[in-house]
Amino acid sequence: MSLSLQDVERVASLARIAIAPGEAETWQSQINGIFELIAGMQAVDTNGIEPMAHARDPVQRLRTDEVTEPDLREKFQAIAPQVEAGLYLVPQVIE
Amino acid sequence: MINEGLKQLSAALAARRISSEELAREYLARIDQLNPQINAFITVNPDATMQEAKTADAMLAAGTAGPLTGIPLAHKDIFCMDGWRTTCASRMLENFVAPYDAHVVGLCRQAGMVCLGKTNMDEFAMGSSNETSWFGPVRNPWDMQAVPGGSSGGSAAAVAARLAPVATGTDTGGSIRQPAAMTGITGLKPTYGVVSRYGMIAFASSLDQAGPMARSAEDCAMLMNAMAGFDARDSTSLEREREDYTRDLGQPLAGLRIGLPKEFFAAGLSGDVARAVDEALAEYRRLGAVTVEVSLPSSALSIPVYYVLAPAEASANLSRFDGVRYGHRAAEYGDLTDMYQKTRAEGFGAEVKRRIMIGTYVLSHGYYDAYYIKAQKIRRLIAEDFAKAFAECDVIMGPTAPETAFDLGAKNSDPVAMYLSDIYTIAVNLAGLPGMSIPCGFDSRQRPVGLQLIGNYFGEARLLGIAHQYQLATDWHQRVPAAVA
Questions:
Q1: In terms of Cα–Cα distance, which of B234, B190, B273, B245 is closest to B440?
Q2: Where residue A1 falls among pLDDT bands split at 50, 70, 90?
Q3: Which of A41, A56, A60 lies at the smallest CB-CB distance from B432?
Q4: Which fold would CATH assign to domain A5-43?
Q5: Is this structure's pTM higher than 0.95?
Q6: Which of the residues A36, B104, B176, B203 has the least number of beta carbons within 10 Å of its own beta carbon?
Q7: A90 to B336: CB separation less than 8 angstroms, yes or no
Q8: Long-range contact pairs involving B25-30 (C-beta distance under 8 Å, separation at least 24)
């Protein structure tokens, strides 16, 4: 199993990471090296084994439905790249 | 005072032989002097530190002090700390000033501890040498040409170099234990869920766990008393009674059954490390313990499993860094997607991008079952191995890392070689068990060797006691690197 250049470009696009021209080749060889390591898993028979998502199989705790957080909008927006009138600004999405 | 343990510092503060301000000033002066060379700290904030010391002195004077009041510590720069720059060693967060405290930071503040600064680390805790930091590598106080290990390399180097008496760290695949081993200090990764992850910047949430790093097991136990405890803001925090982690320090070792996994003493282990570990085991037998062979047959697969699961979780966790609400944003961009892509390309370093891409791939359509689910199934086999082993022993011991600290740059171009540095630590995170590293000797180049101790779930206090008894009989943990003595 190895990733093609197209796979690398597709994954970078899904991960929203821009790659410069020629960069995909470097990623491809490094990532395929790591997948060679990962391939060791495939030899193991895991039929009937329950996947383990979590170390302690925790149960989701519930709490009463009440407001617990104070309004910290100004503090949080003070560290944002671009805000205006209490809103986070991004490039226009809808024409 | 820089070679004193927490117990001695605490007694000196309580008796007013020294003030918290004097202690903080002494450590800040050492940081001033040595940090340009070691690069253990990303951020220091002497005004804030001295303010905290003043508050601690007031608590001491008012009689409201606890055992840790006035003790300085360093926080790994993965913990959010209100008003302090918190970078996670990434360009993405280079100018991020946290708007709130991590739970661990809050608990240390409540205890009256005094923060000396934020320590260097691998970017987003991804690395085993501290070389992926945007702020440059940390140097190992034992040999400035060597790495300190990672990802908590700054915390480890700070404690080893006496730039802080204790520090916090985090461990996802070995990031407390491996740097502790490489810098000759003591570190504890608790049972998953014992220390809150709230405000700790997430890497792989089912594996991440914070813990203490110090020169001795006794100091780790005292800091652990402050760090541990239930927190409703972390959905995986465990609701348990508060514990005193110092309670088993005095327990003798007679009859202790030490399990030695044969897989941890096989090919790939360096001769110097094997020798030091064997001598440590001989010391344990002299102290009354018995050793038995155990087997962890699936542990060989822990690296492949980890490099599926941790990147998968990381790719989801790091999707929050999009240049919208906080952190870096590219200066020039076209549409929204272009803004995300350029921001993330500029803000993340190579190792982080590599892991995000691997994680994205194994979670993508058509590969989810073959990689992600398969890895989760083997994770269960690895956890079951430990359960079987603990039927035959009370504690598992072996090397923390297959070799001592390597030279800066030695493994930079080969990610797979770097990953193998965590071959003995990762299985512990996958199972969620507590693990420690304690110093047990040096290699032929005078670089420290770490002994790993693995306990059963919630066995931290016993582990700390087993480590403390060894440290009463040996002095490896008291050695001081010549360059910083």
A1: B273
A2: low
A3: A56
A4: Histone, subunit A (1.10.20)
A5: yes
A6: A36
A7: yes
A8: B25/B50, B25/B53, B26/B1, B26/B2, B27/B2, B27/B72, B27/B116, B27/B163, B27/B164, B27/B165, B28/B116, B30/B2, B30/B161, B30/B162, B30/B163
